[in-house]
Amino acid sequence: MSQPAFTPDAYAAQLAAKQQRLHELLAPFAAPPAQVFASPLSHYRLRAEFRLWREQEERHYAMFEAGDKHTPILINDFPIASQRINTLMPPLKAAWQASRVLSFKLFQVEFLTTLAGDALITLCYHRPLDAEWQAEAEQLAARLGVSLIGRSRGQRLVIGRDYVAEEMTVAGRTFRYRQPEGAFTQPNGTVCQHMLQWAYDTLGPRDDDLLELYCGNGNFTLPLSTRVRKVLATEISKTSVNAALANLADNAIDNIELVRLSAEELTQALNEVRPFRRLAGIDLKSYDFGTVFVDPPRAGMDPDTCELTRRFDNILYISCNPETLARDIARLNDTHQVTQCALFDQFPWTHHMESGVLLQRR
Q1: Does the annotation place 65 within a ligand binding site?
Q2: Which residues form the active site (predicted)?
């Protein structure tokens, strides 16, 4: 990415184009105008991944255009990444340049940071990591004030913690999150906070229960749980489930049941197609669900899950792909209508966008 692209006028034009695109996709459903949440123009991305490119005995941070693995774009700073990442990049590079132990067969570097200022660096190698590497890596982590993970085939050595600590404030309450290395987290922390507040406001105070599919590490689960009687949340990733359970404990929230099931499996359980040992002790019939919250992957909801959501009076849907969002709304349009809509610009300077809708029973 070239520096001239980072101008307010260019950003405003791009955001307007995204708004128009979302409007056109949702126009067949008579959706109201979208509330738009813009991103900071720079230093918004909390994670970054770089390959290393060797030139004249020096390894550089590098990125590649899609489809081209042979023409590197050498990186000295990265204006879309957080200030913390940009601050860490030069001393980390100096450290591997000064140490054969740290640099030998190092091929990739990953940064994970938070709005709260925490940082984790992962160094990836094409060689086994030994005690000499561990000793130097421990000194490096202490100098940089970070946690550090070394990865090679069959190895994962953790110095400090294997997660970063984040804080998000919604409706005046601060929620603490563990965000593990290798698990999905929202990359744009500022916009993520807008998403949480929008979902909280849109759900509103209720006296019934919430079903959440694809809950991840509990990013939305925690603030939404304060709006309802109780929550049943599902997630298939073990890493995300473990993080979510830790986050429930860290925030002293006790009205959430978390189950490691896919959305498809939960559909089977609710339809009484088959029992699941992972639901032992949970009485599904005790829930009075008024709303289902979904934040699916880019592929959207599978047809069975889409049919499941039709049962609920309210469907709160966060999407990272407006095309599959529009497809799923079309499937539900005979029973539900879009009553609220939002655009969250998680990915400025790209064509990607996040959006949110509230569908309510006609």
Answers
A1: no
A2: 320 (nucleophile), 320, 354 (proton acceptor)
